Amino acid sequence: EVQLMESGGGLVQAGGSLRLSCVGSGFTFSTSPMSWVRQAPGKGVEWVAGIDSDGVKANYANSAKGRFTISRDNAKNTVYLQMNNLKPEDTAVYYCRYVANRGRGIQVIVSS
After folding, report:
1. How many helices (H) and strands (E) does the chain have?
2. DSSP helix/strand/coil, 34
3. pLDDT tens-digit series, residues 47-58
4. Strand partners, 93
5. How far is 81 from 70, CA to CA, in rounded Å?
6. d(CA 60, CA 67)
7. Which residues pair with 72 in a beta bridge?
8. Residue 98: which H helix or E strand, with range?
9. Chain centroid offset of residue 95 CA
10. Which one of 40, 59, 90, 104 has the lowest number of neighbouring Cβ atoms within 10 Å?
C-alpha cells in the first residue's frame, strides 16, 4: 500500500520560510518521480513542483519559481519542499504526490 506522510506546515508571516517533508512507503521511492501539489481554500488543485527519481531535474510552476526548491533524499525515502519568501496567496493544503497517490496533506497558512 502506497503511503505518503507530509509534515512541516504551519503558520508563518509573509516573507517567512517553511520546509515541508514527505516520507513515502509502499513503493520503490528511489526510482519514482515525485511532486508537490496544493489546494487553496475554494480552489482546485495546483501543481507546484516536480522532481525526477535521481533528484537531478526539477520543474516548478510559475508561482513557485525563484522561491520554492524541491529536493529529495532517497536514502530516507523523503522529498522536501523548501519555501522561501512566502506570500498570503501560498496559503493552501500541500500534498506530496506519487503518480495518482497523495498524502493527507499539510496546512500552510501565510499571514500578511
Report:
1. 0, 11
2. strand
3. 999 999 999 999
4. 39, 107
5. 5
6. 10
7. 79
8. strand 92-98
9. 6
10. 104
